């Protein structure tokens, strides 16, 4: 096991935003965190990429409590895409992607040939090569999101933490990103809203409700009509994709009243 959340708790104003959350992510697994707005997905992920300190409990990387590592050390292992990440610097796309190497380089050392190739590959993978010389301040929401994923990839992390990575992406780029994550062999912890994409891309899904883990397991075990009713308060019909057999959720806009 590479990443382990142990009884992770975050309290604010006398309320637990996440409450004794236990979650393991094995090497090479894609684990999706799903749940309604405000259920604590971002809060949990922020503890993993150390934007937030837990009130109690811990995040362990290979058994080591992250708080015992220097920030730079954990950034060599854990790269993050924050929710609605902003970039306020008037840097080019290529420069921002290169910043992903920051935890690995000392001082102002220029990137070496391997690192420049890494940047080129990440930009191609995220379909932003044609934007390399543009200022990031001029990008659309989806273009910016793809640049930030490319920056996280060049960090060469052991764990990639992605908070709603498909935000702002058009359907093609959503499908391409999740296909890539599934096939990359990377270890990924991602908060996702689209349950169909989560089912297709994730090895395991963790479901949060009001800061508590209510289910975890393979998508087909977890994403049942009963669980979705309990957690999201909606009715769904679940069918198999006619060609791939993958689980598909159909949202019943009539609340399941018509047959
Ligand atoms: N500093 C804070 N003080 C008080 N409440 C907070 C604070 N930060 C977050 N919250 C609350 O904690 C809860 C969990 O927020 P979080 O952003 O983790 O939810 P989420 O599951 O990621 O939601 P979404 O799907 O809307 O992105 C929300 O009710 C939020 O309003």
Automatic annotation (TrEMBL):
Superkingdom per UniProt: Bacteria
Occurrences of domain ABC transporter (ranges): 3-235
Q: Name one molecular function that GO assigns to this entry.
A: ATP hydrolysis activity
Keywords in alphabetical order: ATP-binding, Nucleotide-binding, Transport
Q: Which residues form a coiled coil?
A: none
| Key word DNA repair present | no
Q: Which InterPro entries match?
A: AAA+_ATPase (IPR003593), ABC_transporter-like_ATP-bd (IPR003439), ABC_transporter-like_CS (IPR017871), P-loop_NTPase (IPR027417)
Protein name, UniProt field: Iron complex transport system ATP-binding protein
């Amino acid at each position: 096991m590479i990443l382990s959340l142990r009884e992770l708790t975050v309290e604010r104003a006398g309320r637990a935003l996440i409450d004794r959350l236990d979650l393991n992510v094995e090497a090479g697994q894609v684990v999706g965190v799903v749940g309604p707005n405000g259920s604590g997905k971002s809060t949990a992920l922020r503890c993993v990429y150390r934007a937030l300190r837990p009130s109690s409990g811990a995040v362990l990387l290979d058994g080591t409590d992250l708080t015992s590592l220097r920030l730079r050390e954990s950034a060599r292992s854990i790269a993050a895409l924050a929710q609605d990440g902003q970039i306020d610097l008037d840097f080019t796309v290529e420069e921002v992607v290169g910043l992903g190497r920051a935890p690995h380089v000392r001082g102002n050392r220029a990137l070496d040939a391997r690192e420049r190739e890494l940047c080129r590959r990440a930009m191609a993978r995220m379909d932003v090569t044609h934007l390399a010389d543009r200022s990031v301040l001029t990008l659309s929401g989806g273009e910016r999101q793809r640049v930030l994923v490319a920056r996280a990839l060049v960090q060469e992390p052991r764990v990639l933490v992605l908070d709603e990575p498909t935000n702002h992406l058009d359907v093609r780029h959503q499908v391409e990103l999740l296909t890539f994550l599934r096939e990359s062999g990377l270890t990924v912890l991602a908060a996702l809203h689209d349950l169909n994409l989560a089912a297709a891309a994730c090895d395991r899904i963790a479901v949060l409700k009001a800061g508590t883990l209510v289910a975890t397991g393979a998508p087909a075990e977890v994403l049942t009509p009963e669980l979705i009713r309990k957690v999201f308060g909606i009715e769904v019909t679940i069918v198999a994709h006619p060609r791939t057999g993958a689980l598909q959720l159909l949202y019943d806009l009539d609340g399941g009243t018509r047959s």
